[in-house]
Write a structure and sequence with these properties.
single chain; alpha+beta; 6-stranded mixed sheet; 22 helices; 22 strands
């Protein structure tokens, strides 16, 4: 089985691009695909975006005594896990709601594009927004662009529609399935216009798949809780998971051990090998002990001096209180209350105690100063038992063989105990079942004459059911150390200690295996929430049910036109097996022998920007741009409709507020609301 390494890719900070003269002197539109996962920015005259970064902002936590940390945006966050709890975004699901964060993102964009004009950005903005974006959100976005950056004009469009037009420029009908980071949209397009009344949104997206896999692996491997990060779970999602064509059938396949062994992914987590430091020579050990002793003496001397200074200061305060003249009883009483004393007698006792303690401390300091050299006794060498030394009359080879045999027997017993402990941890092993059988027999005995433990045979039962095997390893380990020490002294062929674990190859291999993740059935469980949101506790319908619901709202001929061009776009559309799963679902819901077609965007993440770039470079762009004068006249929520935009629904005029007036009627004043 091949072990796969995690990439742990770090972001590279974006450079500040040059502000070219031909762009500066012309009104080249700036295309911004403002996605909730990534933001992609570039000029309409260029074929590729200049900036691609995660739409995240991190402000390091302020430390005491230091200035506020510099806010990091996008690719400036090189280690996202280090600031995971300081991250924030301008989005609430897929709608921009935090415009202070959006302003920081705009500052990052315009700075790294090299725009250096003072106080304004002299370029039209073509920008994506959420499908059926609330008017209030668009109003604040337009206000930010026109008032803060003084852009000349702005145009809004939907990312899924831009991607659809880029891949199918001549199609007049289709069913767009746009997989976002927080949501999934099903958008029916009829006669080149999206139908907002039949469109549906599922509140499941890429972030939910990542969080689900992250939680599954943390529950499966609690020992590596901290090492399993959301960033690593995201990497596993896009490289190791796939969508099952038939989920129930795939589950039954994973129940087979051979299928599991052939398809499980073994992921190696990073770890550090504890290097075995070479032993110190006796002279080095002696010098090290002297250095440690000297440091300890210095620490104790410093503490004594600090304690002496505190005691002398307190003694001076008490002596001054004792010498207070008559007429200052109030000050004297305050001092007694401060030191929790009841009378002058207690004050005198406290003074005597402090004087005695100061004298003892001075004697200790004087004694420590007179001792210049601190002799550190060398540890006594280990004395090997006489039984572990070869006798002169005994054959040396026979003695060596006997020591080796004893050592091997101890190792075998230790391995047997370890194997027994492992077997006890598993339910279906013979050792665990025998233990449960003995426990059940003991539980059936009547409690009134329970004399278990009175006989020697009961100890054998206890050892049989004890998880530790009934024996202690301490005596065995001590014997093993003595035998290995004897072999190390007398046997030149003895290579090392198995008990101490000096075999670096075995250690590194065991360490690597303990830091591995076996990603098996999780490969299909995580993406399955797109079709079964109930797996994460959501009460919404899945993708297949929502598609069927949308199609049922149209006549048969319109349904056929929609399913003839089912278009998948968005980051999750690149998951392996997704298009095959949708073909299977459509085959089940469509009439017998009906046809349908499922296609995927050429670039699921960048095609929205490519479509917006194509739209921005068209000569008809000017008629879809909202100018500053139109913004001031019709409000920030206004947009001009085009083939990739939302429908414009003006917000209703707010009702006038009533004013209350008092009118005298029959000698009384009555309050009347006037509009």
């Amino acid at each position: 089985m091949t072990t796969l390494e995690l990439k742990d890719t770090k972001t590279v900070p974006d450079p500040i691009h040059p502000y070219l003269r031909n762009i500066r002197n012309s009104s080249v539109p700036l295309v911004i695909d403002n996605g909730s996962y990534q933001c992609r920015v570039g000029w309409a005259t260029q074929k590729e975006p200049l900036l691609i970064f995660k739409n995240l902002i991190a402000k390091p936590r302020k430390e005491r005594g230091k200035k506020d940390g510099e806010t990091q945006v996008g690719n400036d966050i090189t280690n996202i896990e280090a600031v995971r709890f300081q991250l924030k975004t301008q989005f609430d699901r897929n709608v921009v709601t935090h415009f202070e964060a959006q302003e920081q993102v705009f500052d990052y964009i315009f700075t790294h594009l090299g725009i250096d004009t003072e106080g304004y950005v002299n370029h039209p903005i073509v920008m994506t927004e959420a499908f059926l974006n609330p008017n209030y959100s668009r109003h604040l976005m337009s206000e930010l662009l026109f008032e803060c950056y003084r852009v000349p004009s702005v145009c809004y469009g939907v990312d899924g529609l831009f991607s659809f037009r880029h891949n199918h420029p001549n199609s007049s009908a289709g069913l767009i399935i746009n997989f976002g980071y927080h949501t999934t949209h099903i958008l029916p397009v009829i006669n080149n216009q999206v139908d907002p009344t039949r469109s549906r949104r599922i509140n499941v997206g890429g972030i939910h798949i990542i969080n689900y896999l992250h939680r599954l692996l943390q529950l499966k491997y609690p020992a590596h809780f901290a090492a399993i990060t959301p960033s690593r779970a995201e990497e596993l999602i896009y490289e190791q998971t796939f969508v099952a064509v038939d989920y129930q059938e795939e589950l039954s396949l994973w129940a087979d051990s051979d299928h599991y062994d052939n398809h499980v992914r073994r992921i190696q987590l990073p770890y550090t090998i504890q290097a075995v430091t070479p032993g110190l020579t006796p002279e080095q050990q002696k010098e090290r002990r002297k250095e440690l002793a000297r440091r300890l003496i210095e620490i104790n001397a410093r503490k004594r001096e600090e304690r002496l200074a505190e005691d002398e200061e307190q003694l001076n305060q008490l002596l001054a209180a004792q010498d207070l003249e008559e007429g200052e009883e109030n000050e004297f009483q305050k001092i007694l209350d401060f030191y929790e004393l009841s009378s002058g007698t207690d004050l005198q006792k406290l003074i005597s105690q402090l004087q005695a303690r100061i004298e003892r401390t001075k004697q200790k300091i004087a004694a420590a100063n007179t001792t210049e050299d601190n002799v550190v006794e060398d540890p006594k060498p280990k004395v090997i038992k006489q039984t572990l030394k070869p006798n002169d009359q005994e054959d040396f080879e026979t003695w060596i063989a006997g020591v080796r045999q004893k050592r091997q027997e101890i190792l075998e017993r230790r391995n047997a105990r370890r194997q027994r402990r492992q077997d006890m941890a598993k339910r279906r092993t013979a050792a665990a079942q025998e233990r449960m059988r003995l426990i059940s027999q003991l539980a059936r005995k009547e409690k009134r004459d329970d004399n278990f433990g009175m006989r020697d045979e009961d100890w054998d039962v206890y050892k049989a059911i004890n998880k530790e095997g009934g024996d202690s390893d301490s005596d065995e380990e001590q014997k093993l150390l003595e035998l290995e020490e004897a072999l190390r002294r007398h046997d030149p062929e003895f290579e090392g200690s198995v008990s101490s674990g000096t075999t670096s190859a075995n250690n590194s291999g065991n360490t690597a295996e303990t830091h591995q993740l076996h990603v098996g059935i999780e490969r299909i469980r995580a993406p399955e929430i797109l079709f079964q949101p109930s797996m994460i506790g959501s009460g919404e319908a899945g993708l297949a049910e929502t598609i069927e619901f949308v199609l049922r709202g149209y006549p048969a001929d319109v349904q056929s036109a929609l399913v003839s061009n089912v278009f998948l776009t968005g980051g999750c559309a690149a998951l392996p097996g997704l298009s095959e799963r949708l073909r299977r679902e459509l085959l089940e819901m469509r009439p017998f022998k009906s046809t349908f077609n499922v296609t995927i965007a050429n670039n699921t993440t960048l095609d929205a920007w490519y479509g917006a770039q194509t739209f921005s470079s068209s000569p008809d762009l000017n008629q879809y741009l909202v100018t500053r004068s139109e913004y001031e006249e019709r409000g920030g929520e206004y947009l001009k409709e085009h083939y990739a935009s939302n429908k414009y629904y003006p917000s209703p005029t707010p009702l006038p507020q009533a004013e209350s007036i008092q009118l005298p009627v029959g000698g009384e004043e009555i309050e009347i609301d006037v509009f």
